[in-house]
Design goal:
By secondary structure, this protein is of the alpha+beta class. The chain contains twelve helices and 18 strands. Strands 4-8-9-1-7-6-5 form a seven-stranded antiparallel β-sheet. α1 crosses α2 and α3 crosses α4. The two termini are 51 Å apart.
């Protein structure tokens, strides 16, 4: 295993205390309002160009004569808008691929419309020739895309776009670079460490904001970036964010991969057999009981009470701390090169709606944020796999059945008899699935089942012995194969003829 070099960018954001005066704040709000108006104008122009060419121009190709912002501010605003648009379009392209994969189109047509999608060619009108490079051989092949295929891809893309609201810029905040601000150390003010000087709508007039650094920011590693984020909430309260590029830490991996299963009873279960965060659900119940008590005492306005807000804040902090603690322990203990996870919802049906929302939104959001940080800090590869049937498949023999999982914590395979903790079994399936290239994150659940059933039957084939006298195959399999005949996963998925053939081959009474 080799050490990771500190080369990758790793941006961290820190909230900084400010001492902005009322008059300066008013000037900043005027700037913000004009910034938002300009952002809307830029977005409208970009969308018009996009529906013509399928591309988002890197540089501004239109004039903003009506904007009160300076040219420098317009450039900053333009960069922020195209960043949001590109992110939105990239997500829709993924949705496009997902839609095509689940469709009934033939294989060749799927390949072509996906090529159109990947090359942003939805709005081409005439036949088009594409050069496609074979990654394995390096061979260049020319593929002809017809007008009808372009039309189909365009129709699919517009269908995908209709399912999502476009990004809005009416509430965006100021994401500024060094074109429009300076940050200088305070030389005279005793209680402030820096002065943030932001260009205003008035030429050569600055909005001066004193900043007080905190210990968390001072102790954080990395170099300060020439970038500042100025956020306003609904009450027009300002929050200033500074950023550091922390880079990557030296890291030596000890294991190729580790699978992680997430749940409520055991927050994290590893494919190595660890159950981490076993009191997680008990602590959440305590917080949830407090919410229930507040709701009973104040059924109409409990969410407005300070006591409720404190519980919410405490719960969020606990979820984040537990997730961070558990994931840090995994990295420290096993130092994996790759972490394999499945996409899950943090839900527990016996919690209140408020607690479910807290756990789901905060837990999922911070979970992926923390994984991204681990990837940025140590260069760990984060792999997401399809979640279907990981809790119902035996990690030993591959047999899939709804009755394999006996209870929340107990798993016993009906076929090979393997007994194991259900969460550990799930974590091992998660790790194993990374090697099944035919199962994609966006694969249909039915397709996943077909692949798993086929893989299990192929596993049985390994036990086949040819009888030279009769030229037949005998299956000396040590497992209880009779369970297959009553398993709907096999009967429904294989079809009657193929299912009967399987039963006959394994001497089962179908």
């Amino acid at each position: 295993m080799t050490d990771k070099k500190k080369t990758a960018s790793n941006i961290r954001v820190y909230s900084i205390k400010d001492g902005i005066l009322k008059t300066q704040k008013e000037s900043l709000i005027l700037l913000l309002n004009e910034y938002r108006v300009t952002a809307e104008i830029i977005a409208n122009n970009l969308w018009q160009n996009f529906f013509t060419s399928g591309e988002i121009d890197k540089y501004m190709s239109f004039a903003l004569d009506d904007s009160k912002l300076s040219k420098r501010y317009q450039q900053v605003c333009y960069a922020q808008v195209i960043g949001m648009l590109k992110s939105f379009i990239a997500n829709r392209k993924n949705d496009f691929n997902d839609c095509v994969h689940r469709s009934s189109l033939d294989k060749d047509l799927k390949h072509k419309v996906n090529l159109i999608n990947n090359r942003n060619l939805w709005f081409k009108g005439d036949d088009y020739s594409l050069e496609v490079i074979n990654k394995k051989t390096g061979e260049v092949k020319t593929t002809l895309i017809t007008k009808d295929e372009l039309k189909l891809a365009r129709k699919i893309f517009k269908h995908v776009l209709k399912g999502f609201k476009r990004p809005t810029y009416k509430r965006i905040n100021l994401a500024l670079d060094s074109k429009v601000f300076t940050l200088s150390a305070s030389k005279t003010a005793k209680h402030w460490d820096y002065w943030l000087n932001v260009s205003s709508l008035t030429p050569r007039k600055l909005i001066k904001i004193p900043l007080k650094l905190n210990q968390y920011f001072n102790l954080a590693r990395g170099d300060l970036k020439n970038f500042v984020q100025l956020n306003f909430n609904e009450a027009n309260e300002l929050t200033v964010y500074l950023m550091k590029d922390s880079g990557q830490l030296a890291y030596t991996s000890k294991n190729d991969s580790i699978g992680l299963d997430f749940g409520m009873r055991n927050l994290i279960t590893t494919s190595k057999g660890d159950l981490i965060g076993r009191n997680f659900i008990d602590r959440l119940r305590e917080y949830d009981n407090k919410i229930i008590a507040l709701r009973l005492a104040n059924p109409q306005f409990f969410w407005k009470l300070d006591a409720y807000k404190i519980i919410v804040k405490t719960t969020r902090a606990y979820i984040k701390n537990e997730l961070s603690r558990c994931l840090n322990w995994v990295v420290k203990r096993y130092a994996p090169k790759e972490i394999v996870v499945e996409k899950l919802e943090f839900r527990f049906l016996h919690f209140t709606r408020q607690m479910n929302r807290l756990v789901s939104n905060c837990g999922i959001g911070y979970f992926y944020t923390k994984l991204e940080r681990l990837s940025n800090d140590y260069g760990i590869l984060i792999t997401k796999i399809h979640a279907a049937y990981t809790s119902r498949t035996c990690s030993s023999c591959g047999y899939i059945s709804a009755t394999n999982r006996k209870t929340q914590s107990k798993f016993k395979c009906d076929c090979c008899g393997k007994k194991i903790n259900a969460d550990i079994n799930g974590a091992r399936n998660i790790e194993n699935r990374r090697s099944i290239s035919s199962i994609k994150v966006f694969s249909a659940k039915r397709a996943v089942l077909d692949i798993l059933v086929t893989a299990f039957l192929a596993n049985i084939e390994r036990h086949g012995v040819v009888n030279s006298n009769t030229n037949t195959v005998l299956y000396r399999c040590p497992w209880n194969l009779s369970v297959i005949k009553d398993n709907p996963y096999f009967a429904d998925n294989l079809g009657n003829r193929e299912f009967n053939q399987v039963c006959s081959a394994f001497s089962l009474q179908g």
